[in-house]
Structure formats: structure tokens, C-alpha cells
Write a structure and sequence with these properties.
The protein is mostly helical. Helices cover 56% and strands 2% of the residues. It is built from 23 helices and six strands. Strands 1-2 form a two-stranded antiparallel ribbon. It has a two-stranded parallel ribbon with strand order 3-6. The protein has a two-stranded antiparallel ribbon with strand order 4-5. Its main location: cytoplasm. This is SESN1 protein. Keywords: Cytoplasm, Oxidoreductase. It catalyses: a hydroperoxide + L-cysteinyl-[protein] = S-hydroxy-L-cysteinyl-[protein] + an alcohol.
Length: 548
């Protein structure tokens, strides 16, 4: 990609070699200070008119602010802060972070602080920074579960940066298309920057109609995968593979499908955990000075509140006493024990199991939020996709019946895995590992209780999500779901999986009130992977039917 005149080069900071980072910081510091001195003197810089030079300096200062707070290498954090201080001494206003930590839902003091992580986490942070050039807020929340994070980062790195059927700029553009289906401006912003960094054409960012026809053709599949994957047929696949000069190869299509499902489900995680904007992105910093009370009226109108206010009880919710919450945990554990005893005593007939599935599938349609509360404000990203009115619809609304998808007939383990691995080598293996880690992850704890077997609860969450997508496991008793998942939890699960952009802090706070934040993040990992696998099953089954 051609560098803009006077462009600051940041790549050297990703090096694991301290001397290379030091040299890169020296060059960055000189370039930023030279620009700042020109602007302070009222002169143009880098051959740009003064307003454009100011904007360019602002971008560099926001990047330095992010590095001073979020870089895993202490030398980079300290030197970035020193450069910002020197710019401030020239009389130029420097930015400060908005918000408090990587999540709007989790108090910053309860997340892992950069610089205070243990050796295992530091390795993961350094790996993430070296790969992405940043330590993003998704990583800082996922690191509650290092084993999963390692698998997630490895998979995402392979999909975006390693050898594969699709060119790099296509991969990031597909990420933008997928995230935009859920109006996830957090992910859209990150991938717009990455798309430009790998040489993507800025004109494509003006709207999907400006992208190549081949990518436009993917719009329909993106739409169905995100909202109604059960409608995908082999005819949709045939249309993409046989459209003359704009056709996709099977390998390219598999790569695209995995990227689309990855970013649909990552949008669920982003909204489900209340991920804050990155410090150097729009909404992550401000150049306004703090007011006496540490936030000013313009912050409030833009939705940025003081730290105490953010983490106070949501309006209208009466704080629940710890005794009530403890009872909630005890009651859940008692139900798990009773269900285990019933399992040991008697087994329901196949007919009864099928009836229970149909009942749960039908009931899941009526689980919806009555919230009018505003979810996180996002800028309009609809130009990145078509048909903005197309969203999630339950199966049997308007008399439309969708047949149940039986895992016994088409499963990830027996069918999907080998198809992906055959057409996009190693990716089937990476996805399989990630699914297994999420499904089997346990610390044998529930809130304050230790040595608890949580497998029954984890299976109920996973199977409830698949049930919402019409996917049935013949050997599972769906009667367990109503016993283990209460209404507020079901509302949260359905919102995060089906309409993540509508998730609110109130929903996050109202389920499992006595559980740790790390346990709620664990729930989100199950939601992410179960959703991704459900979308993949429908797409891969259609591809298999096309091939046979």
C-alpha cells in the first residue's frame, strides 16, 4: 500500500525485539514532535493544510494514548506516555480515554490490568499484539479464559493472515460485511482500518454497491446466515459457484462462510460482554479536558457516564439481596442434582423426547425482551450491507414451518469437519479444537461453590441455542432446559445470539446475579461457539447437497 506523505510507521512496535521497538519509537517520537511543533507555531505540516495536519496529528496522538494504556511491552507504554507529555508541553491538547476499561458491563478493577498479567497471559498478550498490532478489548475480556483465548487467536490469525483461498483485503471486507449485519461498529471500525492497511480500495467502504460484483453476490448468503440460516439451500450455493466471471470456487466459498460465521458470532460476544470502543477508535477517546467531577455534560449526552454511575444498579431494578442471590445458586444446584437422579432412574421414550424438543423450540419463539432501554449507541454501518429490514425471524411465524435439523443426519463431527478440512486445510482442525474447548471448559465452580460438575448446565445452554435454530439432538432430554435456564437467562441468551445489537447492561446484570463476571464471559463463549456451529451446519449441509 502506498504510504501517505508524512505517514507515521507503527509496524516496528510489534517486534518482540526490544532494540527494534526502541528504534521504531524513536522514529515515531521524532515524526510526531516535528508535526506538533509545526502546528504549535501555526504552520502547515507534512505538506498538508493546517486543519488536515491537525487531524493527522490527532490520529497519531490517539494511537500513542492506546499504546500507553494497552501495549503489553512496558518500554512501549512508558515511551508513548513520554511522547504525549512532550506534545502537551508544546501547548497542544492531548487525548484522554473515554469510558472505563474494556467492557461497559464489567468494572475495570475486575478485569485483567495490562502490566499486571501473569506469565501465561503476558505470552498471549504479546502474541496478540505482535499479530494484530494492538491488544484489543475483546482479548482483554476473553483472557478470563486463557485456554480458549489461545485457540481463538490462533484460529482468527489463520483466517485473516495465513495462506488461504481469499486475498487479504477480501477477508477484512467480508469481516466488515458480517459485523455490519448486526450494526457492530466496534468490529466494523477495526476491520476498516485493517482493510486499508492491507491495500484495500477506500471506495469499497462507501457501500457494498462499490465493491466487486463477486462480493456483492455474497450479500444474500451473509443475510441468511446472520438471521435465518435455516433458509439456506443448495440453490443459493449453486448461484454463487456458477455466476460466470464473478463465480466463487468451493475453497473460496468455504473460507468466506467461515469468516462470515466467525464475525456474526464475534458480534454476539462484543454486544454480550458490552465491549467498549478501542481507545484509538471513534468513541474511545476525547480531546476535551476533564471537568471537576471527572466528566462533563457533553460526556453524559454522548452516553459516557462517571465510573460510579456506570456500575450502579440499572434504573428501575431493585438491588437483589445477597441472600436471594445465594438462594438462586443453591436452587440451581438442587435442580441439577434432582435431574441427575431422574436420569439414573428412568429414561423418557423417543416419542416423549421428540415432543419435548418441539415444545422447547415452540416456546423459544415467545422468549423476547420487553426492554425499551437503549442498547449501546452505534454509528450507522448499513452502507456495508443491503436490505436493512431483513432480520431474525422465528421459525413458525406467519405459518411458515421449517423442518427440524437432526444432528444424527448431519453433524459437525461426522460431516462438516471433514468438508472444511478438505477444502480449506487445517481450518476444520482449528475450529474443532475451539468448539471443544468452549464446550468442555470448566473450573468445577458455580459462584461461591467449588467441586461442582457443570456439564449438565453447559450442555443445556449449548442445546438451547441449537434448539432456537431448529437443531435437535435425539439423545437429549429438552425438558432439562426449562429446569435449568430461567426466563431472564433465556432472554439474555436469545438476544445475544439472535439480535445482539439489542443487548443491554440490564439484561447482563439480571441473570445469574451471584456469579462471577468470568462465569458470565464463559457463558458468552458458549453462545459464540454454539451460534457459529449452528450457522456452519446449515451452510455446510447446503454445500454438501450441492456437491452430491
Amino acid at each position: 500500500m502506498e504510504e501517505r506523505e508524512g505517514e507515521v510507521r507503527w509496524d516496528g512496535l510489534c517486534s518482540r525485539d526490544a532494540a527494534a521497538r526502541d528504534a521504531a519509537l524513536e522514529t515515531i517520537g521524532q515524526a510526531v514532535l516535528r508535526r506538533a511543533e509545526s502546528i504549535a507555531a501555526g504552520a502547515a505540516a507534512d505538506g498538508l493544510p493546517l486543519p488536515a495536519a491537525r487531524d493527522r496529528l490527532g490520529e497519531a496522538l490517539a494511537r500513542l494514548l492506546m499504546l500507553s494504556k494497552r501495549c503489553p511491552f512496558p518500554d512501549v507504554r512508558e515511551k508513548s506516555e513520554a511522547i504525549l507529555s512532550r506534545v502537551q508541553e508544546l501547548g497542544i491538547r492531548i487525548p484522554r480515554p473515554l469510558g472505563h476499561g474494556p467492557s461497559r458491563f464489567i468494572p475495570e478493577k475486575e478485569t485483567i490490568q495490562v502490566g499486571k498479567e501473569d506469565a501465561t497471559m503476558h505470552t498471549l498478550f504479546a502474541e496478540s499484539f505482535a499479530t494484530l498490532g494492538r491488544l484489543d478489548n475483546v482479548t482483554l475480556v476473553m483472557v478470563f479464559h486463557p485456554q480458549y483465548l489461545e485457540s481463538f487467536l490462533k484460529t482468527q490469525h489463520y483466517l485473516l493472515q495465513m495462506d488461504g483461498p481469499l486475498p487479504l483485503h477480501y477477508r477484512h471486507y467480508i469481516g466488515i460485511m458480517a459485523a455490519a449485519r448486526h450494526q457492530c461498529s466496534y468490529l466494523v471500525n477495526l476491520h476498516v482500518n485493517d482493510f486499508l492497511h492491507v491495500g484495500g480500495d477506500p471506495k469499497w467502504l462507501n457501500g457494498l454497491e462499490n465493491a466487486p460484483q463477486k462480493l456483492q453476490n455474497l450479500g444474500e448468503l451473509n443475510k441468511m446466515l446472520a438471521h435465518r440460516p435455516w433458509l439456506i439451500t443448495k440453490e443459493h450455493i449453486e448461484q454463487l459457484l456458477k455466476t460466470e466471471e464473478n463465480s466463487w470456487s468451493l475453497a473460496e466459498l468455504i473460507h468466506a462462510v467461515v469468516l462470515l460465521t466467525h464475525y456474526h458470532s464475534l458480534a454476539s460476544f462484543t454486544f454480550g460482554c458490552g465491549i467498549s470502543p478501542e481507545i484509538d477508535c471513534e468513541g474511545g477517546h476525547t480531546f476535551r479536558p476533564p471537568s471537576v467531577s471527572n466528566y462533563c455534560i457533553c460526556d453524559i449526552t454522548n452516553g459516557y457516564h462517571g465510573v460510579d454511575e456506570i456500575h450502579a444498579s440499572p434504573a428501575g431494578i431493585i438491588p437483589v439481596s445477597s441472600t436471594e442471590s445465594v438462594c438462586e445458586v443453591e436452587a440451581l444446584m438442587e435442580k441439577m442434582k434432582q435431574l441427575q437422579e431422574c436420569r439414573d432412574e428412568e429414561e423418557a421414550s423417543q416419542e416423549e423426547m421428540a415432543t419435548r424438543f418441539e415444545r422447547e423450540k415452540r416456546e423459544s419463539m415467545f422468549v423476547c425482551s420487553s426492554e425499551d432501554e437503549e442498547s449501546a449507541a452505534t454509528r450507522d454501518v448499513s452502507r456495508h450491507f443491503e436490505d436493512t429490514s431483513y432480520g431474525y425471524k422465528d421459525f413458525s411465524r406467519h405459518g411458515m414451518h421449517v423442518p427440524t435439523f437432526r444432528v444424527q443426519d448431519y453433524s459437525w463431527e461426522d460431516h462438516g469437519y471433514s468438508l472444511v478440512n478438505r477444502l480449506y486445510p487445517d481450518v476444520g482442525q482449528l475450529l474443532d479444537e475451539k468448539f471443544h474447548i468452549a464446550y468442555n471448559l470448566t473450573y468445577n465452580t458455580m459462584a461461591m461453590h467449588k467441586d461442582v460438575d457443570t456439564s449438565m448446565l453447559r450442555r443445556a445452554i449449548w442445546n438451547y441455542i441449537h434448539c432456537m435454530f431448529g437443531i435437535r439432538y435425539d439423545d437429549y432430554d429438552y425438558g432439562e432446559i426449562n429446569q435449568l435456564l430461567d426466563r431472564s437467562f433465556k432472554v439474555y441468551i436469545k438476544t445475544v445470539v439472535c439480535t445482539p445489537e439489542k443487548t443491554t447492561k440490564r439484561m447482563y446484570d439480571s441473570f445469574w446475579r451471584q456469579f462471577e463476571h468470568s462465569e458470565k464471559v464463559h457463558v458468552n463463549l458458549l453462545l459464540v461457539e454454539a451460534r457459529m456451529q449452528a450457522e456452519l451446519l446449515y451452510a455446510l449441509r447446503a454445500i454438501t447437497r450441492y456437491m452430491t
